[in-house]
Amino acid sequence: MASVTVDSVSKSYGGQPVLRGVDLAVREGEIAALLGPSGCGKTTLLRLIAGFERVDAGEIAIGGETASRAASHTPPEKRRIGYVPQEGALFPHLTVAGNVAYGLPRAERGSGRVAETLALVGCEALADRYPHQLSGGQQQRVALARALAPRPRLIVLDEPFNGLDLELRRSVCAEVVATLRRTGATAIIVTHDPEEAFASADSLAVMHAGRIVQQGAPRTVYRAPGTLEAARITGPAILLDGTIHEGRAETPIGAAELIEASRGVSGAADICVRPEQIALVAHGLGAHAPILERSFRGDHSLLTVTVGEHRIAVRAPADFDAAADHVHLAVEGACAAFLRRGR
Ligand SMILES: Nc1ncnc2c1ncn2[C@@H]1O[C@H](COP(=O)(O)OP(=O)(O)OP(=O)(O)O)[C@@H](O)[C@H]1O
How far apart are CA 225 and CA 237, in angstroms? Predict the structure, then answer.
């Protein structure tokens, strides 16, 4: 297994920059998630790491050895990387066993490695089926087996669960991550789904407009996003119009603590609150918030309330007082804040 280091990598297509100085570090045996909106350059970065495309500038090292620079390029077949592309990855005219054998050297095709790898992903009983005879989840497991069979140093997976419905997506993702952990693989999983990234990764890299804007442990990135983009990309973020003064924030929902990185400045700022940080409190203790709408959601009710200029969705108990026309709110826990420049 190998570490991966991407250092100031840039790539343009037809004069249009797609990657603008990307830095990424994945340690040996680590699962990293690359999270970002559509079009931010995730697939392009994976293809550069796999060696399908050349970098314009910067460097990619795999296992400490340079694999890509503007002046030198190790071809994909010499990188020992397993690539799991987006849906439709299996060859339709080959059986499951044929698909998995495809990437193996001829001498290893009859060696039991195919059966061993299919067993690893729990698909040994499917060896003689064709892809169209498999469910979506089974297809993804076989695609993973095909990538793992040649014992690659690194596995890269490009939105591997996109074609699956939400329920199946969660369970197949958990199985794939468990398999990667059993093999000790270093892996990079591309996704645009924050929950999937949080659930699978040791290290989360947030990508926006051709750059990695933050990389760190999933908890850290969620609780202490370093930029407004990182806050928005990593899950629901309510941005309150506030001020920072002496290490604390004032917001339309009252005073709030700040994460350490946001304490050293002062001025008008966007205060980033995660929905679960907004608490219903007793009358008189928090900000007055009229209820605009309420919606029963089974295990809870969702209230839409206004606070100053903001419309906010707040979770309340399922049987929340039907006669109430307002609630009182407070912010719990520390928030990230971003100074508003030029205002
Ligand atoms: N071979 C190419 N030629 C020209 N433009 C390209 C090429 N490959 C990618 N692009 C452009 O680069 C940008 C980034 O594409 P990329 O596929 O890397 O994004 P992404 O983050 O993976 O998006 P998605 O989540 O939608 O798959 C897009 O604007 C795309 O149109």
Answer: 10
* 49/26 Cα distance (integer angstroms): 12
Q: Which domains does the chain have, with CATH numbers?
A: 4-232 (3.40.50.300), 236-339 (2.40.50.140)
Residue 237 in contact with residue 272, Cβ under 8 Å? yes
Helix axis angle, 136-148 to 113-120, nearest 10°: 130
- Between CA 190 and CA 31 the distance in angstroms is 11
Atom 3 (ligand 1) nearest CA = 13
Residue nearest to atom 17 of ligand 1 (CA): 43
Task: Please report the atom of ligand 1 found closest to the CA of residue 36.
Answer: 21
pLDDT of the residue at 290: 94
Number of helices (H) and strands (E) in the chain: give both, helices first.
Answer: 8, 20
Tokens of 315: 């979770």
- Check if 42 has its Cβ closer than 6 Å to any atom of ligand 1: yes
Q: Which regions in the chain score pLDDT beneath 70? A: 88, 342-343
ipTM value > 0.85: yes
